[in-house]
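To whoever is on call:

I kicked off a structure prediction for a single chain this morning and the downstream step that reads the tokens threw a length-mismatch warning. I double-checked the sequence; it's 194 residues and nothing unusual in it as far as I can see. Pasting both halves so you can look.
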Amino acid sequence: MNESTIKPKSTGKNIIFIIVIIALLAGNIVFILSWQGAKSEVDRYSDSADEIAALDRDLTDCRVRLDDADANKDVLERRIETLDKRLQKMRDEVIGISSMSKVAARKMQSMGLYNPEQSIINDLMKHPELIQQKPLSGGKMGFYDKKKIFVLNEYFVYAHFTDGHFHGTMILEYKVSDSGKISWEVLKAYENWH
């Protein structure tokens, strides 16, 4: 046997062997790449499934909160209704003390006093200078308690005043100008020691 004949056969076998190895490597590379792609797709779908589950939990939580809010809304609406009735009853009691005519009240409203009696009471509380009695022990005289000021009618108010030690009451006459400004005149003051 000649060496020249053996070399070509082994070279041919080597080339075929190398081609097969390269093909197998290329196939493995393609397989690995496609497996990686498939794995990332599976991971993506897995992440999406987790996200869908989280969104579903959030949606359920929101529905529960909405149901709770609806129930709470009903409770709050009943509370508002109760407070409205109580407020109206208190207003009726306060208005019941007054003999102010509805015509006079409407006229005062047209002058800018939306709630005439409360406006008159609030204005009087801003005028402690109307109290002529001197305070004791460095106190300051004033109309401090709205519940102790009564609008008797469209002309007169009966009011309690105090400095914390000395108490008194007075009857005042008031007038409302066309611009809604209230002016006061003390008619009589009574001193009460308590």
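Update from on-call: the warning came from a stale cache, not from the record. Cleared it. Sanity check on the structure: The helical segments are 3-97, 102-110, 116-125.
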